[in-house]
Amino acid sequence: MATAAAPSRQTRPLFADRVAMLDTENAFKVGPYIKEVEDAGHQVVRCNIGEPDFPLPRHIAEEVKRQIDNDLTHYNDPQGILPLREAIAHTMGEARGIHITPDRVVVFPGAKPPIGFTQQTYCNAGDEIIYPSPGFPIYESFVRYIGASAVPLHLEESSGFSFDGSDLRRLITDRTKLVYINFPSNPTGGVATRDQLNEIAQVVLANTAPEVRVYSDEVYERILFDGEKHASIASVPGMEERTVLVSGVSKSYSWTGGRIGWAVFPTEAEAAVFKNLNINYFSCVPGYNQMGAKVALESPESEISIATMVDAFSKRRDFVVDALNSIDGVRCQKPKGAFYVFPNIAGVCESLGAIEAHASLPSPVRDFTTPSTLFQLFLLFRHHVATLDRKSFGRIGSEGKHYLRLSIATSLEQLKLGMQRLERASRDADGFRAFVQEGRHLY
Ligand SMILES: Cc1ncc(COP(=O)(O)O)c(C=O)c1O
C-alpha cells in the first residue's frame, strides 16, 4: 500500500490572500490617534465622528428596558422579529408610496452588514460594481475582497456632489452587476433631486439586465435641511423590483450602539438568501433592541426627537459653512442633508506646501498618504482638531483631490473652537514643515 509523503514543514503564509484585499473605515482608525493627543494633555475637538451627539430618545430606551424585563433576551427569528419587519414594511412603504411585505424585509446588526452581504450575494469575480466616490468607504472596501472590479463614480463639487443619469450611463458595461447610491450622502451631504433620481432610474432600467441591482443606502433619510423631503429611487416606477433599499436606526434615532439596520429586497427569495447569511454569521439581532426600533419607527415622539436634532444640525451647518468659507484657501458647499461638511482645502494644501511635501516623501510613505492626509494629521496632532481626509472615502482615483470631511455632530461651542484652530492651522506653514520633517504621523 502506498504511503502518503510526509507533510513538508515549509513555512506557509499565515493569512489567506483575501485578507490583504479588505480595506477599512478610517473613522475607527483615528480613535487611537485622538487618544495619543489627549494622553499628551490636549483637548481634541472631535469633528471626525459619524454619529449624532444626542442621547437615545427616552421613549426608545424605555421600550428596550421593558423588553429586557419581558425576557426578550433569547435567540429569535434570524430574518428579524415579525413586529419590527411589519413596522419597517409599513413605514418605509408609506414614505415611498410603494407596497412592501414583511417577508421582503431582513434585519441586520446595523446598516453596514448588508453592504458586504450584497456583494457576496449578487456578484461573481470579474463583475463590476459602481459606487459613489467620495462615498461611504465600505462600498469600495469589499470589492476586491470578493474578486469583483471597482468602478468609482466620481462625484464633483461643481455638481453639488450629486450625479445624474448621463454620469452613470458612462460607467455601465455588460459586466455591471451592482450600483450603490447614497442620498443624503456620507461624506458630502449631497442629495439628489427627484429629477436626478428619475434619470438615474431610467438609465438603470434602459441599460442593464433585470438581474442588476441598485443598492440605495438611505440611512440619512430623516436628516434633511431647509424643509427638503426625502426622495427614494425605489419610488420610481419599475425600480422597486431592482432596488435593495437600506436604512436603520443609527443616524435618525441617534442609536449607533443599538446595531439595528434593515434592507428591503425586491423578492422574498432574495430576502431568504440574506436571512441565511445572518444564520451563518450571527444567528440573530437582540430582540429587545428590535422592539426598541419598532417603537422608534412608530412613535409620534420620535418625530419630536428628530426635529430637535435636525434643527441643531442645521444651525451648526450654517455656522461651520460660513466659518470655513471665511478661511483663505478653503471652499465649502452647504450640505442638504446628513451631518457632515466636505470642504475643498486645495488652497490650504498649496499655501502650506503640502502638495510639494507629499511629492518629496520617499516611497512607500508617499503611497500611503496624500496632501489632504498630511493636513488632516497636522490638524490633529499640532492643532488638536480631528477630521478625516478625502481618501478615507474611496481611494481609487482620489489622487489630486484635496478635501476634508468634518462632522458637525458636536456642540456649537466645540465647533467654534474647532474653526478657530483650523484657521490657525491653515496659516501655520512653519509648524506644518516641522510636522512633516518629524515624520511620525504621516498616514
Ligand atoms: C452611508 C452609510 N451607510 C451605512 C452606515 C452604517 O451604519 P450602521 O451604524 O447602522 O451600521 C453608515 C455609518 O456611518 C453610513 O454613513
In short:
The protein is an alpha/beta fold. It has helices at residues 26-39, 58-69, 82-96, 113-122, 137-143, 165-169, 194-207, 268-281, 287-298, 300-325, 346-352, 354-359, 365-368, 371-383, 412-427, 429-438, and strands spanning 45-46, 105-108, 128-133, 149-154, 176-182, 213-217, 243-248, 261-264, 340-341, 385-386, 388-389, 404-407.
Explained architecture:
With 443 residues, the chain is an alpha/beta fold. 42% of the residues lie in helices and 11% in strands. It has 16 helices and 12 strands. It is globular, with a radius of gyration of 23 Å. The mean pLDDT is 96. The strands form 3 sheets. The protein has a 7-stranded mixed β-sheet with strand order 2-8-7-6-5-3-4, with helices on both faces. The chain has a 3-stranded antiparallel β-sheet with strand order 9-12-11. The longest helix is centred in the C-terminal third of the chain and has 26 residues. Helix 5 links the parallel strand 3 and strand 4. Helix 10 runs parallel beside helix 15. The protein has 2 domains: 166 residues, Aspartate Aminotransferase, domain 1; 229 residues, 3-Layer(aba) Sandwich (Aspartate Aminotransferase, domain 2), CATH 3.40.640.10. The structure holds pyridoxal-5'-phosphate (PLP). Pyridoxal-5'-phosphate (PLP) binds next to loops.
